[in-house]
Amino acid sequence: MVKMASTEEQDRKIVLEFCHLLEKSKQLFNGLRDLPQYGHRQWQAYFGRTFDVYTKLWKFQQQHRLVLDSKYGLKRWQIGEIASKIGQLYYHYYLRTSETNYLNEAYSFYAAIRGRAYYSRAIKEDRPDLMVKKLRYYARFIVVCLLLKKMKLVRELVIELERQIQEYTTTYVASRRYEPEDQLEWSLVLEEIKGFIKAESAVAVLHADTNPIVLSHRLSPLTTPPCERTPHMTLSLQEILIVGSACEQAKFSELTMDMFRMLQTLEREPTDSMHPMIGHPMAHGGPHDASPAASRMPPYGVPGSKGYVENGDRRSMRDNPHKYLLYKPSLSQLMVFLSSGFKELPPGGALLLYMSADGCFSTTKHPQDYGYELGGLATSVKRDAVDSGLSVRGKSSAGYKEPHCLYPGDLYPYTRRPLFIIIDSDNSFVFQHIPRYFGQPLVILMSPQDVPASYQDLQHHGSLFTLFLHSPMTAICYICNVGDVPIHHWERCQNYVDRFVTEASRLVTRCRMDEIEQGIGYIDSSYVQFFGDDFLRTLILRFVFCDVALRLHRGFRGRHQRPRCEPPLPGPELLEHPSLAHIVLQLATALDVRGHFVEGPEGD
User: Fold this and answer.
1) What number of helices (H) and strands (E) belong to the chain?
2) Residue 424 bridge partners (DSSP)
3) In 245-300, which ranges are continuous DSSP H helix?
4) What pLDDT is stored for residue 389 in this prediction?
5) Which of 334, 196, 319, 226 is CA-nearest to residue 266?
6) 25-39, 283-297, 526-540, 558-572 — most confident range
7) Residue 443 DSSP SS3
8) By the 8 A CB rule, do 446 and 172 touch?
9) Bond before 567 cis per omega within 30 degrees
10) Contacts 24+ apart (CB under 8 A), 555-558
11) How many whole angstroms separate alpha carbon 197 and alpha carbon 193?
12) Which pTM value belongs to this model?
């Protein structure tokens, strides 16, 4: 009798401890949304405490499952909800740190939910809110799989999500126990996902059996362009701001296609976790439960925990530069995040601003102030055309400037530190006049302002310029109407792209050496200082590929249909060099699209 009472007391303590950890975890998780999205120190310690509590909660429910089942009535969907929040923690930690390994951790928890069917009986609970949580889980899982390029699984999840939406609406529509708007909203989410997947697969690479292959375009040791390093290559990319404000572009979960491609371009290929993905079995008296081991949370060091190194040493541990992702921000939001990135730059660090946005156009006939009288980029679509003085086409009127517009002059203060700017817009060229008041390295890569009419309908699938910076081989296929390529042929053609990049890298270094030896100013020193960074070197060389390819392509004849850069890269010594043109034409021949390009190396 005493033993039974002792056991009951112990069980009661287990239930109380579980309730305490569960409540504490919910409080901390809900507090995450109140943390500032910018800066580093403001949120690190809080994330550390949240990870710590969820670690304890996950372990606790694994170790005491039988007691919690019988005394607390723990349901499988409740376990799934805990796992889902841990997955969200990892995903948001990835967004804040830019470390792609955390995506693998988020994936492991989301996959466990699906593999163990934690939400399988959610519809039986007769709770519409629980079904909404299940639908949100699917949407989040799809985002993580998209970022990890698990496209086969993405398509499976989309089919499952569509079935779950149908089940949700048909189950509760008769009882009127859900908001009628829900069905429309989830249908829009589904169509958004489908449209994004279609746009993402610009060119299909096929196995011998005609099944598509998914290729990653993140940076890896095999894809990092070679470089003959010099003492002048002193800068490293440390902070990135990726902004997507293009209105008519495929998007999903506040990621436009351009943002999606650029964020991968600026990340290294994630490494497999060094830890096993399977944790403790869940004691049910039945099959073991293959669940992620929470003892690894997070495996690469939590801010505020032991083993985590602050400040400069922390940066040396990172594989990727830190980045912010902003979808259609207001100008004030953009400036706050840009200022934060500027503030966080360590000595020898560079800041990259990438903007994909629609243009704001000026009607000033004789501009005198290139900083504000040539127009700029729209940062938010929530504009009142009357109050702001905008005409219908987005041009300023009545002498007023559009407030929700990033002007070139807005970036002048940030040129106090090394700044690398990429503008993808139909008004990109207005940024070529930014002065170097402070003598710091400054490079501006600008997209073509126009594309041939035959490509304009495809702009919804993402910008051609960003596609060149993301995957030059895909972009070449795209502008030559090549919809699919067998893998063996793709690899053969990719060798030409690699040869081009290697040769262009050699020419850049050669230009600098000639400048030193002969005193001839071939190439601006800004390029050389940025060239030592793997990511910035990749972007510069892919820009060169884009310029050469479009210069040679018959369809891109107007000057506004080719990219620009500031400072200008040398023509005869680089952009118009015969060896680069020759490689592009060899690539065109290998792809059997030689007819799309001019007869000789001169493209003009």
Assistant:
1) 18, 14
2) 356
3) 257-265
4) 42
5) 319
6) 526-540
7) strand
8) no
9) yes
10) 555/452, 555/454, 555/455, 555/479, 555/596, 556/448, 556/451, 556/452, 556/479, 558/450
11) 6
12) 0.88
